[in-house]
Each structure stands twice: as C-alpha cells, then as structure tokens.
C-alpha cells in the first residue's frame, strides 16, 4: 500500500468541497480545523471514503472523532496503511 501525500489529500478535500467553491485549499490548510475549511462531518466522511479508495486502506469511522485537521487525517491514514507492512516485516 502506498502512502498518501498532503498534496493528494488536499486535492481530494478540494473535490469534496465542490467545484462551485471559490476557495482552493493549499499547503497552508494542513493544520486548519475541518470546520474552518468549510467541511462538515459529511464532507469529512466523503473525503475519508475517497482516500480509502486511493490508498487501499480502511479507516474505521470512529477513529475520525479526534481527527480535526488534514494533517491529522493524513497521519491516521498513513499509519493505517503501514500496519500490514509492519506486520509482514515483523514475521
């Protein structure tokens, strides 16, 4: 499984915000709260669903409770993506 980059995550968030929005998130949005970026809980869930398809990893929705920024989501997804590799290399 491949790691997700911040650029890729922000592109996904921009798609979830919709093409009608005048705002395009850049790298400075990494540490901004999802609410401040205009993402409600449904948009965050849609972002997660798209990211899961891109990376090929499943992130349980209950883990999103403490994830409030793109940087935190990126860390969570990449940690989950690395878990099978770590298990395989430990064996």
UniProtKB/TrEMBL annotation:
<dbReference type="GO" id="GO:0017000">
    <property type="term" value="P:antibiotic biosynthetic process"/>
</dbReference>
<dbReference type="InterPro" id="IPR036736">
    <property type="entry name" value="ACP-like_sf"/>
</dbReference>
<dbReference type="GO" id="GO:0031177">
    <property type="term" value="F:phosphopantetheine binding"/>
</dbReference>
<dbReference type="InterPro" id="IPR009081">
    <property type="entry name" value="PP-bd_ACP"/>
</dbReference>
<dbReference type="InterPro" id="IPR020806">
    <property type="entry name" value="PKS_PP-bd"/>
</dbReference>
<keyword id="KW-0596">Phosphopantetheine</keyword>
<keyword id="KW-0597">Phosphoprotein</keyword>
<protein>
    <recommendedName>
        <fullName>Carrier domain-containing protein</fullName>
    </recommendedName>
</protein>
<dbReference type="Pfam" id="PF00550">
    <property type="entry name" value="PP-binding"/>
</dbReference>
<dbReference type="InterPro" id="IPR006162">
    <property type="entry name" value="Ppantetheine_attach_site"/>
</dbReference>
<feature type="domain" description="Carrier">
    <location>
        <begin position="3"/>
        <end position="81"/>
    </location>
</feature>
